[in-house]
From TrEMBL:
Protein name (Swiss-Prot/TrEMBL): Luc7-like protein 3
Species of origin: Glycine soja (Wild soybean)
Protein family per UniProt: Belongs to the Luc7 family.
Superkingdom of this protein's organism: Eukaryota
Coiled coil: 124-151
Region ranges (Disordered): 243-349
Composition bias, Basic residues: 337-349
InterPro entries: Luc7-rel
GO biological process: mRNA splice site recognition
One GO cellular component, as annotated: U1 snRNP
Biased composition (Basic and acidic residues): 243-336
Length: 349
């Protein structure tokens, strides 16, 4: 019926049976609505795994629609919603497994409490006496059998052995009831516990019954749940490892850039230091040349003074005398330039 209903929904739409009034308030359901089962969209819904089993979870309260699942798989937002749905499914499955593991622990405790049965109660005094007499007879007969066998009396030895067997049967009859009870308790105790689904099994059971259990809904369902949890945890570990490797790679790149900046800074510092040293050497050479030129000027001036002194001071007196005559000539020229009329009158007279 569910398959036929799903087929009709696909062909005619989910609102095929609604009246006109109901269609007015009807809203088309999308895969990202809260009413839609995200577990069914991304993987499986645990409510579908244990139908008609001891672990039946009942029907899922949310919508399971193959058309919505198909639209989800084709949606451009598919990859963005998968981690969210898987995380929610993982939480739900972990709760299921925690409840199951509690049942498994209780089952182990039950099996552990079923210890070996207590030893049978001691025999009564009468049976103990009978047992001692039988054991003594058996011992004497075995000694006689051994003696007859050494003497080569085989027939007689075989006859005594038959008596020994009869006495052993009587001895076993005295303790047989208690041994039967121990055997029955031991057989009842041969139980095992399935670690996957928590079911009790008969140890060393027939292969058909074991195969039937392994392929049953409860065992398969809990196997899917446990496999998904392990897969989800492994994917989280892989993502964390990838993120850690990416973080370490970024740190290595940042460290390399820092070292490169330090190298460039050191190279610029050395270059600046070399430029300063070259400028300092140039300034030093320039200053040294200036001092050398100044010393040369002083040396030439000193040599000139020495030559003037050797000439008897003529050069000095000539410059001084020339300086005085030059002064009178400049004064005379200045006077002439100031009184041109006077000089003209003198020329005309």
């Amino acid at each position: 019926m569910d398959a036929q209903r799903a087929l009709l929904d696909e062909l005619m739409g989910a609102a095929r049976n609604l009246t006109e009034e109901e269609r007015k308030g009807y809203k088309e359901v999308s895969w990202d609505d809260k009413e839609v089962c995200g577990f069914y969209m991304v993987r499986f819904c645990p409510h579908d795994l244990f139908v008609n089993t001891r672990s039946d979870l009942g029907p899922c309260p949310r919508i399971h629609d193959p058309k919505l699942k198909e639209s989800f798989e084709k949606s451009p937002r598919h990859d963005a919603y998968v981690p969210k749905f898987e995380a929610e499914l993982s939480q739900f499955c972990e709760k299921l497994v925690m409840d199951l593991d509690r049942r498994v622990r209780r089952g182990r405790e039950r099996l552990a409490q079923e210890v070996e049965p207590t030893p049978p109660p001691p025999l009564t005094a009468e049976k103990s006496e009978q047992l001692s007499v039988l054991e003594e007879k058996i011992k004497n007969l075995l000694e006689q059998v051994e003696s007859l066998g050494e003497a080569g009396k085989v027939d007689e030895a075989e006859a005594l052995m038959r008596k020994v067997e009869t006495l052993n049967a009587e001895k076993t009859a005295l303790t047989q009831p208690q041994n039967d009870k121990v055997l029955m308790l031991g057989q009842e105790k041969k139980m095992a516990l399935c670690e996957i689904c928590g079911s009790f099994l008969v140890a060393n059971d027939a292969a058909e019954r074991t195969q039937s259990h392994v392929t049953g809904k409860q065992h398969v369902g809990y196997g899917m749940v446990r496999d998904f949890i392990n897969e989800f945890k492994a994917s989280l570990i892989a993502k964390e490892k990838a993120n850690e490797e990416e973080r370490l790679a970024r740190e290595r790149e940042a460290e390399e850039r820092r070292k490169q900046r330090e190298k460039e800074s050191e190279r610029r510092r050395r270059s600046d230091s070399s430029d300063r040293d070259r400028h300092r050497d140039k300034d030093h050479n320039r200053e040294r040349d200036r001092y050398r030129d100044r010393d040369s000027d002083r040396e030439r001036s000193r040599e000139h003074d020495v030559r003037g002194y050797r000439d008897g001071g003529r050069g000095v007196d000539y410059r001084a005398r020339n300086g005085r005559n030059g002064g009178r000539d400049r004064y005379r020229d200045r006077s002439r330039s100031r009184s041109p009329g006077k000089h003209s009158h003198r020329r005309s007279s």
